[in-house]
């Protein structure tokens, strides 16, 4: 099974792809390019409106021409994304697109445009962060648009007269704007994925959930989930003693941080799944009083194998993609940034096999959640 077919089985965070409702943005960008081509042909044929427009464009300095193209694309992207979604977020994107078009018009007609652009960019980035906090996830189309807006801002700051201090300030503003954009994307993705790991929900960045619609579990499914939770808690209770865990092959030599996953290489490849006596991974929290056992994680042996949902919508398995794996020490370090980068000395890892946590520590709201919720 190739990666595309495998991923088609799952729902991932929109932060790494393009939302279907934003496809209109691509269409509008293509329309802008086609319209520009028609305008150049019209100018060559001495068509008066086209000749005036292209004449104004050619009279601009080279950096301003670049800014004009960027503004045209930014306007099209924002309008396309806004028209493709309903509600306040869609209306806001349409307004930003119209604002970019207005700034472009001022640029091409020789009117003041730099200050309106700076105001528009700062307001747009600030509001985008607010939308992210409200749970509106930025996808790759949104990231590209925001980065293009920052690029236009960089052009403006590059062309402002001033000394070295002003150039340094301009560079700091641009770098800060890129960081601000990334922060907004992360915030939106995390907020949108904090609902849990039920079927049909938006997962956290780096998490893949099976496609499906959430529903209430049947009585039999609830009983099966409760029974398996009890069996797991009873079977792994002895591993509160990390020495026993180590004797049975779990890698507990360097337990650090929270939710430390101690794997058992033998159990990961023994062909046995869902055996409470042989879970593939134990999960510990590091505390001042020593490691505390939080639960276990069961894993399918091969990538592409579907985990059995014996408890229906209660026991939802998940996989990971866009994760970063470091070599010092060998472990998952983080998830890829929205810009597709991993931290230093780590590399992006492909789709993983499916896994399911069972949290046995008292007071857990959802014993089968992907992330511990107390």
What does this structure look like?
This protein is an alpha+beta fold. The chain folds into two domains: 3-192, no CATH class; 207-318 and 354-359, no CATH class. The protein is 48% helix and 12% strand. The protein contains eleven helices and ten strands. The protein has helices at 3-7, 23-44, 48-58, 62-83, 87-108, 114-133, 140-159, 164-192, 219-236, 242-247, 265-268; strands at residues 10-11, 207-210, 260-263, 281-285, 292-299, 319-320, 323-327, 330-335, 346-349, 355-359. Strands 3-4-5-10 form a four-stranded antiparallel β-sheet. Strands 1-2-6 form a three-stranded antiparallel β-sheet, with no helix packed on it. Strands 8-7-9 form a three-stranded antiparallel β-sheet, with no helix packed on it. The longest helix is centred in the middle third of the chain and has 29 residues, at 164-192. 33% of the residues are buried. The mean pLDDT is 87.
Question: Can I get a quick summary?
Answer:
With 374 residues, the chain is an alpha+beta fold. The protein contains 11 helices and 10 strands.
Measured as a percent range, the helix fraction is 40-55%
Give the strand order of the largest sheet, numbering strands 1, 2, ... along the chain: 3-4-5-10
The largest sheet, given as strand count, sense and whether it forms a barrel, is: 4 strands, antiparallel
Rg: 26 Å
**Shape estimate:** elongated
């Amino acid at each position: 099974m190739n990666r595309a077919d495998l991923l088609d089985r799952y729902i991932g965070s929109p932060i790494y792809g393009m939302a279907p409702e934003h496809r209109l943005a691509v269409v509008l960008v293509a329309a802008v390019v086609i319209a520009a081509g028609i305008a150049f042909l019209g100018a060559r044929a001495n068509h008066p409106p086209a000749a005036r427009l292209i004449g104004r464009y050619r009279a601009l300095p080279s950096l301003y021409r670049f800014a004009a193209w960027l503004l045209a694309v930014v306007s099209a992207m924002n309008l396309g994304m806004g028209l493709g979604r309903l509600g306040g977020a869609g209306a806001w994107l349409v307004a930003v697109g119209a604002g970019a078009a207005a700034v472009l018009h001022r640029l091409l007609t020789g009117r003041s445009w730099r200050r309106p652009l700076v105001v528009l960019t700062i307001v747009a980035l600030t509001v985008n962060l607010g939308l992210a906090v409200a749970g509106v996830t930025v996808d790759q189309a949104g990231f590209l648009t925001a980065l293009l807006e920052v690029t236009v801002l960089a052009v403006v700051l590059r062309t402002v007269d001033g000394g070295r201090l002003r150039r340094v300030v301009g560079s700091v503003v641009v770098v800060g704007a890129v960081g601000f954009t990334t922060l907004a994307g992360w915030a939106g993705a995390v907020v949108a994925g904090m609902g849990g790991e039920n079927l049909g929900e938006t997962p956290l960045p780096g998490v893949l959930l099976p496609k499906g619609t959430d529903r209430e579990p049947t009585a039999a499914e609830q009983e099966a989930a409760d029974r398996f939770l009890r069996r797991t808690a009873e079977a792994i209770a002895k591993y509160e003693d990390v020495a026993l865990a180590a004797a049975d092959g779990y890698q507990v030599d360097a337990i650090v941080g929270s939710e430390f996953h101690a794997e058992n290489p033998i159990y990961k490849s023994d062909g046995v799944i869902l055996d409470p006596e042989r879970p593939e991974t134990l999960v510990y929290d590091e505390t001042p009083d020593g490691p505390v056992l939080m639960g276990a994680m069961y894993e399918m042996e091969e990538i592409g194998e579907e985990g059995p949902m014996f408890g229906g919508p209660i026991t939802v398995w998940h996989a990971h993609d866009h994760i970063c794996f470091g070599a010092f020490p060998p472990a998952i370090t983080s998830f890829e940034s929205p810009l597709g980068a991993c931290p230093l000395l780590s590399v992006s890892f492909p789709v993983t096999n499916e896994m399911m946590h069972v949290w046995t520590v008292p007071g857990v709201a959802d014993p089968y959640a992907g992330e511990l919720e107390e």
